[in-house]
Model the fold of this input.
Amino acid sequence: MLKFSAIKKMGRSPRLARTAEEVEARLQKMRRWTKGPFNKAISWLVQLGVAIFTTVYMRIFNKTRVHHRERLKSTTRPYMYVSNHLTMFDDFFIDSLLYLPYAFTDIRNFPWHAPEEKNFFLGPVIGFFMQKAQCIPLTRGHGVFQPGMTRLKELLQDDAIVHIYPEGTRSRSGDIGKGQVGVGRLAYQSRAKVLPVYHEGTQDLLPIGSHRLRVGKRVEVIVGEPLDLTDLYDQNDSRDIYQQIATRMVDAIRALRDELHASGHGIHPIPEPKTEKVKPEDAEK
Done:
């Protein structure tokens, strides 16, 4: 089995864009990645190949069930698809499974992704593959003013589906963390529809710290109804509104988790919510 650590050694991620000129140049390159009939054909073939491989892996070598798949078909593009985040390959595990039936005839039904640049854009060969797999690189810690965020906003204002994680990073415990302001800002500025999805069991396919895919595991996926964020989109632009949007996203994902467990299809126990430690000096007040 090819290890992910070996893949990472195959190349270096590109130098981060720092000046306004470099940011604009990178944004222009991103716009060309799937532009034109040739690039679109290559992108469709790459994504179709990945989708077939991962669907076979998820359906045949593991047991995967999708609840309320019909909600995907009834949600029209463009929209932001938000989910919890358990492994580095959640996009490949889940997206291919969900969207393969609808993407045979229309490449626009394959979602765009927003992976961490330093983990996935590794040299020209892997970088080319990621481009054609509709991946927009983001750099954690560089905020919303980076070319990748601008490109995601453009896609959401066009006719695309964008998969993003409102928590911003993988969960180590399996719990669902706090929504990040940057994701709320992206939704607000694009006025995107938001479709929540919850999945459970992918952490058993590729546990944190492991580099080998597992087989014989069970995965459950549940698709929610699109969120109505009109009341927040109608508010004045502010950080507080961004946070409220992100919080509503993760609350919807938690509600799907509760629904899955209430129906008897949960795999792992729901983690206990974390409680903040009270300092001794605060307790005396």
